[in-house]
Design goal:
The complex is a heterodimer of chains A (474) and B (99). Chain A has helices at 4-13, 18-36, 44-59, 102-109, 152-159, 176-182, 216-226, 269-284, 296-315, 333-344, 347-360, 366-389, 412-417, 423-428, 457-470; strands at 39-42, 71-75, 113-118, 165-170, 185-188, 208-213, 256-260, 288-292, 392-396, 432-439, 445-451. Chain A has a domain at 4-242: Amidase signature (AS) domain (Amidase signature (AS) enzymes), CATH 3.90.1300.10. Helices cover 40% and strands 13% of the residues of chain A. Chain B is flat. Chain B is mostly helical. Chain B has a two-stranded antiparallel ribbon. Chain B has a domain at 6-43: Histone, subunit A. In chain B, helix 1 packs across helix 2. The longest helix of chain B is centred in the N-terminal third of the chain and has 18 residues, at 22-39. Classes of the chains: A alpha/beta (474), B mainly alpha (99). At the A-B interface, helix 9, helix 10, helix 11, helix 12 and helix 13 of A face helix 1 and helix 2 of B.
């Protein structure tokens, strides 16, 4: 499948119809979805209707948006009017949202064509899609391995050429980690840059929506389209969408790049080797390399696995069998709620709700949640100090390439530890991007992560583009 | 921190409105205990005087003008309810004795 950029250009120029692009996407989904289990729902009729409408507008000579005719896969925790939205949970099975998420409205406004909803770890809690109530997604690059998670379906959709663009959500690495494991660009934007209206909440102080694509330019185009202030999200930054595509080729000459020990140590040798080569590439491109140690990043994992479950336990209290989704009847209203939640939530979701409820409960709040919020402050302060010495930071996205199914499911703590490099940016609310660079074990892609201060997306895209070119994708 | 006890897990399950089987209680006591043990590395820190961060950029209240504006279609919302009566969400009895 061609890139977002080329597809939009050809459709805008009338060189190709939006319908033929969409048919190509739908054909690929039909060909591979049974094997890979990427989409939970495919909206063939809706996609064709949207493509036809776009083609009619182009035929009338109307100007169409920057993403004209681009098929887009949506993670199934993003609401689209009338389209089943499950969060890969039985508790929402059959629910059809009565409204669009703001990102969906923005994509539609830019001419993109949603083709369906992708699998995820239930309520975005996981790193492999093995926690989906509807079964895992397979990594298109090696089907015995996980695609990563929680946005594993979105990553697999792009990697399997089902769509050139997918949206995911990233609470502790859920865009960047699957992007790394599937050989894609994955962007976790600055907190507040992209509206979360219509994203079903996991941990509200950490969640951000972002794109997964095959190229840096495609990711910049997508983020430009979905970013910018939204009055429907009270955490939305007040400014309009930043200029990103124009800065993709700015390079890194004169930039100070901080190589952070704590974002590399503990990773497998093949991953470390890729990061080290990426550092050399940036040095050769004119960046100044600074070695940094930020011990606070290690503590981030502990803080995260109290803060995120605490917020989740509160956010998921709304699933009580009253207003939407599953209801399991039982004697009185409390029994009904308990029966509904017990039947509707999967094991990992229950584990996080329990952890969060405990961390917030009387007698433990100060020791756990309160302590975690202070460690969050330490992490943010540590970033601030690092950015006095560097303009951007580099490390690994994940400790390993894509792992085998079942290798971490018995030990939740092992699965949690695979998020250690991605979590700090969620705690600080700052942007980070994963870019494929080199290959590791079994020829699988390695993701290198670039991190920057708040609103530094353009800088990160420019750095990622340098690595993309050096990795043979001009 | 004292170790997580099975009765703590049972109490939390009740607060979270989740029914736990005996084997689930055993498993969760071990697994949640492991996460809490890992978190205990934070207790070694001197955090006196560190201000808690609940939000990455110090969010303050965001309010809009108190004008009437269109909202979601009532019928569309109610059509997704597990049970509704006269345009309202219907639930099992709340008051009085449970059957």
């Amino acid at each position: 499948m061609r890139s977002v950029r080329d597809t939009a250009r050809d459709v805008q120029n009338g060189d190709e119809s939006a319908l033929s692009v969409v048919e190509e996407s739908l054909a690929q989904i039909r060909a591979r979805n049974e094997e890979l289990h990427v989409f939970l729902y495919v909206d063939e009729d809706g996609a064709r209707a949207a493509a036809n409408a776009l083609d009619e507008r182009i035929a009338r000579g109307e100007t169409v948006g920057a993403l004209a005719g681009v098929p887009v896969a949506l993670k199934d925790n993003l609401c689209q009017t009338g389209i089943p939205t499950t969060c890969s949970s039985k508790i929402l099975e059959g629910w059809r949202p009565p409204y669009n998420a703001t990102v969906v409205d923005r994509l539609l406004g830019a001419g993109a064509v949603p083709v369906g909803k992708t699998n995820l770890d239930e309520f975005a809690m996981g790193s492999s899609t093995e926690n989906s109530a509807f079964g895992p997604t397979r990594n298109p690059l090696c089907t015995s391995r996980v695609p990563g998670g929680s946005s594993g379906g979105s990553a697999a959709a792009v990697a399997a050429d089902m769509a050139p663009l997918a949206l995911g959500s990233d609470t502790g690495g859920s865009i960047r980690q699957p992007a790394a494991l599937c050989g894609l660009i994955g962007v976790k934007p600055s907190y507040g840059l992209v509206s979360r209206y219509g994203l079903i909440a996991f941990a509200s102080s950490l969640d951000q929506i972002g794109p997964l694509t095959k190229t840096v330019t495609d990711a910049a185009m997508a983020l430009e389209a979905i970013a910018g202030h939204d009055p429907l999200d009270s955490t939305s930054l007040p400014e309009p969408s930043p200029s990103l595509v124009a800065h993709v080729d700015d390079g890194v000459a004169g930039r100070r790049v901080g190589v952070v020990r704590e974002l590399i140590d503990g990773a497998d040798e093949d991953v470390v080797a890729s990061v080290e080569r990426a550092v050399e590439v940036l040095r050769d491109a004119g960046a100044t390399i600074v070695e940094l140690s930020v011990p606070e990043f290690r503590l981030g994992l502990s803080a995260y696995y109290l803060i995120a479950p605490a917020e989740a336990s509160s956010n998921l209290a709304r699933f009580d069998g009253v207003r939407y989704g599953l209801r399991v009847d039982a004697g009185d209203v409390t029994a009904m709620m308990e029966a509904t939640r017990t039947a509707g939530f999967g094991e990992e979701v229950k584990r996080r709700i329990m952890l969060g409820t405990y961390a917030l409960s009387a007698g433990y709040y100060d020791a756990y949640y309160g302590q975690a919020l202070k460690v969050r402050t330490l992490t943010i302060d540590a970033f601030r100090r690092a950015y006095q010495e560097a303009d951007l930071l580099i490390g690994a996205t994940t400790p390993s390439v894509a792992f085998e199914f079942g290798s971490k499911t018995a030990d939740p703590m092992a699965m949690y530890l695979s998020d250690v490099f991605t979590i700090p940016s969620n705690l600080s609310g700052e942007p980070a991007i994963s870019v494929p660079f080199g290959t590791g074990e079994a020829g699988l892609p390695v993701g290198v992560q670039l991190l920057g201060p708040g609103r530094s997306e353009a800088r990160l895209f420019a750095g990622a583009r340098v690595l993309e070119i050096a990795d043979g994708r001009p | 921190m004292a170790g997580l006890r099975r009765e703590d897990v049972a109490h939390v399950a009740k607060l979270a409105r989740l029914t736990m089987s005996e084997s689930e209680l055993d498993k969760f006591t071990v697994q949640l205990g492991q996460v809490l043990d890992h978190a205990s590395d934070m207790n070694a820190l001197d955090l006196d005087g560190v201000v808690a961060t609940a939000h990455p950029f110090g969010l303050i209240n965001v309010v809009r003008a108190d004008d009437v504006r269109p909202c979601l279609d009532h019928d569309a919302v109610m059509s997704m309810a597990p049970d509704a009566q006269d345009g309202r969400f219907a639930v099992p009895r709340i008051l009085g004795e449970a059957p």
